[in-house]
Structures are given as C-alpha cells and as structure tokens.
Amino acid sequence: MPQSPRQRRDGRALRQRAEASVQAEVSSAEEVRDPASLPETLSLHELQVHQVELEMQNEELRRSYAELAALQERYRNLYDLA
C-alpha cells in the first residue's frame, strides 16, 4: 500500500529525530580513524538509528493505545448512561 504524504513526512521526521539522538550519543573520541572499518561503522550506525526509530514508534503506539482505551471507556460510559 502506498504511503500518504503525511506518512512520508512523519517517517522523515522520525528518522531525523532518531539520527539526532544517535549523533548525540556519539562522541568525538569514537570517530572512525581506520578507513577499512568504515562499512562496519556505517552499518552499526544504521542499526542504532533503526533501533531508536523503533523505540520511538513503540512509545507512540503505547501513547495512542492509552488514549484509545480512555476514549473507549468514556464512550462506553456515555452509551451506558443513554
């Protein structure tokens, strides 16, 4: 299924936040000095970014689920009172 423009924007924003989070954790002492290890370092960086993205998505899902549960309870109570 194709993504909507909003989903693409949200995905890009999530990726940027994850990149910033990973970059904040990397110190200048951890910079790569050996060009041979660059592909492994880039792969590790990508994995870290994906992990942060997934954690952010999970947190958003938890918030959405809690909000949905509260709304369900509210409307169930309204229905019962009607």
Rg, Å, rounded: 20 Å
| Structural class based on helices, strands and sheet pairing | mainly alpha
**Tally of separate helices:** 2
Q: What is the beta-strand fraction?
A: under 5%
Largest sheet: none
Mean pLDDT: 79
Q: Report the count of strand segments.
A: 0
End-to-end Cα distance? 40 Å
Helix content: over 70%
Q: Give the ordered list of helices and strands.
A: HH
Structural shape: elongated
Low-pLDDT stretches: none
Keywords:
82 residues; mainly alpha; 2 helices; 0% strand; elongated
Set down the secondary structure blueprint.
Elements: H1 5-25, H2 38-81
Structure description:
The protein has about 80 residues and is mainly alpha-helical. The protein is about 80% helix and about 0% strand. The chain has helices spanning about 5-25, 40-80. The longest helix has about 45 residues, at about 40-80. About 0% of the residues are buried.
